[in-house]
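Handover notes (outgoing to incoming on-call)

Open items:
1. Glucose-6-phosphate isomerase: sequence verified, structure written out, both below. Nothing else pending on this one.
2. Nothing else urgent.
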Amino acid sequence: MKLSGQILANIDPEISRQLREITPQVAKKDVNVWVTDNETANRLNWIDLPTKSRDLLPELDALSAWARSNGLTQIVLCGMGGSSLAPEVIASTYKKLLTTLDSTDPDQILNSIPSDLSKALVVVGSKSGTTIETLSQFEFYINIFKEADLNPIEHIVIVTDPGTPLDIRARKESYKVVNADPNVGGRFSALSAFGLVPAALIGVDISLLLDDAEKLSLILSSKESPAIEIAACLYSLTDQIINFCDNGSAAPGLSNWIEQLIAESTGKNLSGRLPVVIEEVESAISGITVGFTPGEYDLVIEATLGEQFILWEWVTALLCYLLKVNPFNQPNVVEAKDRTTAILLSLGSKGFDTPTPAYEDSDYLIYSNQKINSLSDFLKSNVNYFAVLAYLDRGSDDEIYKIRKLIAAKSKTATTFGWGPRYLHSTGQFHKGGQQNGAFIVITGDSGSDIEIPNKDYTFSQLIMAQALADIESISERNLPVIRIHLKNRKKAIARLISDLEKN
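Glucose-6-phosphate isomerase structure tokens:
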């Protein structure tokens, strides 16, 4: 790998010295480096994954051979956060086909169905074995395979920690199961079974990923570790915002994986670092900017994908040491899950408890805890960042992403973009646990279709709405500015939002 950038000369030598002192302890998996809790006291096996994951190779070779022999060439991955972001980057880097389902939006779920179900292989990945989105997708795919007179057992593979409810059920029902190391946290699991099972099934030579990661690991555990320099920069040269741009790099989507890793790990105790994924270096509003190809970035990290994975895990762990936070827990992600469950339980026949909109026309409705009636008014909020949170179809509703750049330019404020509910497993932790200086633009929309969730009393459209409303509750209780724009006709309303931002 190669690390360059003029700001490296501005690193506080005392910060680097502190990190050099504790790097050997990290390499030895000494959890006392951080303040941890009982649940996360043993989450350091990611350090060994470049070598230990080689134990999976025979199992993954056999699994891939089985899939090929049965003509299972259309791979769908059902997973959230750490179970899906790394496989998606691997697929895009190696130019392999992988359909990632990390949403509860009915349209996105329907669009994930392979063209030929007889050739479909669905990987269901959940570390906890209780992830509501993933388990709902699991039930959905069981149902459609049965409706097509196909045996789900021959078309679904489970990846989970040993002993989880999903592991117990899957083994009882005779599904193929690959267990991950339970002592690796979800967002640190790129080189574990969660990343490697989908990679192997789409035809990636995972031994190359591990080779590259292992070679760099030898340097990262030394006092000359480049992770020390990067962590020191992210700690001392910005108070909050870190821009990431993978435009033109060999690993499209790498920024999104890093975003989850840093935001969910550091965004606690009202501190942290907020990654902002930008389209090009000129889009940066504040903070420092990291790129992965030579350019006008503050920091440039040129490395293979295997190197990037292990490098950023080390960087994040060291950054959390400096910030004095536990890298391995995610308390506010659990909060979002609990609120969603409560809303679904209270749903009944009366539907959602919806307040009176602040504004309504033929295209959309606006709700807010602020005295405003337009998005332009909301953008006058005096905050450190805006977060666009789109509970829409990542695929057919991709035009909505354009408003990130437009809002940043109009407000002259750093602006993130997250697909809901995916961001709940990523920046969602930072929004509620990090610095309380953001404003939130939640976008929901009428669905063109809906899907019953087998064995549940609610549908997918109700689930995704409950997730959006639950997060709005959490944000509002912290007295943070939030606006919800509900689109009546998605394409028409998205076009209008873009047009209005371009005009004003």
